[in-house]
Structures are given as structure tokens and as C-alpha cells.
Amino acid sequence: MIPDTLFDALACGARIAVHHAWFHAFAMSGGTPDEIDHIYAMTTEGIRELGTQWSPILLSKGLSLRLTGVFCHQTPKAHYNHPVDGPKAPELGDLLIVHEHKNTLPGGTITRRAVLVQAKMVSEGVPGGGKVDQYQEHLYEHWPDFELKGRGPGTARFLSGQRDFRPGIDSGRYGLIEKNPHAVHPFWCGFPWTYSEPRKPVRSAGGEDAGAFIANMLYDTGWLRGRVALIPPTPLALAPGNHFDVTVEELLTLTAMKTLRFSKKAYIKGLRGHPALACFQNAYGALSLLPDTGTGFAETDFGGRGIPPEETAEPDFDDGISVLLIETGGEGKARLA
Fold first, then answer.
1. What's the predicted TM-score (pTM) here?
2. What is the DSSP annotation of 239-306?
């Protein structure tokens, strides 16, 4: 298990990683980062720093760790019928965060929890204009039946049919990203990402800083961070009660196929809306203790340059999603006593 006594250290380490990624986005963008810059920084520099912070904590208890960060520009759209305005297709999310833990005791299992994150720039905790996109908000607040359309490489496609994530709102969170470091406020604590429930109004108030949220995903708590996602059998098929499980598996699989297919493309930074891809991965401890999901991803060879590669082939292969995959393994399972 992941001992409860490690939580404070894991939360502090995750907060440091989030803070580090936030400042890196400013340096990378020349001082005016948007959501895309912040997601890229989180899945690259953030994932590296998270490994630096977490690996000695977990290794001290015999637990292995693998971290995978994937950056994608294009993300799949959730096609649904709005009750007033008809067909709409907002993004399913900007970032998929997944934690898997492998219990290596005899008869042990692999558990998975996941959450979709929609990134939104805010100023002092409040979105511009005081609100977020109404159709994205309706999706995350109510989770109406929706359909995913599109394909991966070759013949790989999302399963056809309507998807039902109900009940509850644990499938998605808003990732509220501060535009400025609150320089005028002497008590700013350096928590520039806040995960907010998709309830009106969407604000940092009432949310949880991203570092604590991510660390809490490693534990079974009274209020779960993210949603339990069973690992579905193959071949995948939509059935009552498994739509979230299948969607998480499809997103992970299609994104991993992208990293394998495009890992050797030319390196240039893509503009917003232009397909681009980067994958970073680090592992610590015995790989045999870890789940297998991370082995499906191929790390991007940047040749020393910290900018994402351009995808020049199959421009309609746009159904990957930015991923932060956390895999842990050892005796027992994550819990809260």
C-alpha cells in the first residue's frame, strides 16, 4: 500500500511540480502563456519535477513509480444535444489524469482512477467575463449522453454509440490556471492551478489546489479525487455502466498509438489548433512492480530541444489527448486508514 504517512510529502512534492511547471510556461512563452503553454509545461517540465519529488519518497517504502506525460494539441469532441440550443461539440477535456496502482501481493489487482480536466485561464480565481463556455459547462455539470467521433492511426476509431457518464460529476474538473502570480497579495501561497468542480459558478473558491488533488488520487478517501475506472476487457465494447471505463481506455490507447507513430517527426512548435505531440516518461524502481499501461507509450526524442514536434502525416488523426499517467506498484493498494 501507499502509507498514509507519505501523503504530506507527496502533496508538497506535487505542489512544487505544479508551481515549477507554471513558471516554466512563462519562460517558454516569453511571458504571456495561454492554456496550451501551461498544459505543455505541465506534461513535460511538470512531470519531470514530479518524478524528482516523488521518487525518493516512494522508493523509501519499496514502491516503484513511472510517470508519463503526453502533450497533444487536438483533443476529441463530445457531440451532444443541448436542451435549448441543439447539437453542440465542446472538447471532452484538455488533459486526462490517470493513476494506476499494482498490488503485488498474491491475488493482488490493478486499480485505476481517472479524471478529465478542462483548462481555463483565470484572474485571481475568476474566469474572464465571470463565466466559462456554457456548452462545456453543461457537459461537465450534467454529463448528457454524448458521442465521440474520429479515429486514430489506420482503422482505429472510437466506438460508435452514445456514452453515459452519469451519475455524479467526478468524471471532470476545471483546471483553473492563474494568469498572474498575485504580486499585489502578500499571502499568495504559490498554488497557480486549482481544480474546481463544474458547478456554477466556476471559481477557485471551493476548489482544491492541483498538487493536493493529484496526491489525493493515490488514496481511497471519503471524497474521491477522480472517478474509479475499471480496466475493461478486450475487445472493447460499450455496455451499461462501463462507458467511463471504456472511454479512459480508448483515450490512453489512441494517445499511446500517436506517440509510437509520430515519435520521429521534425521538431517545430505548432500554433494553436495545429496537431503537435510530445511524450515524456521516467521510471523509478523495479519495473516489474508496475502496471503495463505505460509501456504502450514511446518517449519523444527531442535531441536536446524542448519544443514539441510537428505531425506532418494524417492531419485528421487528432483524437489523442494530453495525458498525465501516474503508475505505482508494490505490496498492497493505495488507501486511507
1. 0.91
2. -TT-HHHHHHHHHHHHHHHHHHHSTTS-B-PPPTTS-BEEEEEEEES-GGGS-SGGGG------TT--
How far is the CA of 135 from the CAs of 85, 102, 116, 203, in angstroms? Answer: 9, 37, 16, 17
The CA distance from 110 to 114, in Å, is 13
> Which residues of the chain register pLDDT less than 70?
151-155, 169, 182-189, 261-275, 302-318, 332-337
Neighbours of 134 (CB within 10 A): 13
Amino acid 260: pLDDT: 77
Return d(Cα 97, Cα 322) in angstroms, integer.
9
pLDDT in tens, 21-63: 999 998 888 888 899 889 999 999 999 999 999 999 999 999 9
Give me the count of residues in the chain: 337
Contact between residue 128 and residue 283 where contact means Cβ atoms under 8 Å apart: no
Distance of alpha carbon 19 from alpha carbon 74, whole angstroms: 25
- Please state the domain extents for the chain: 4-330
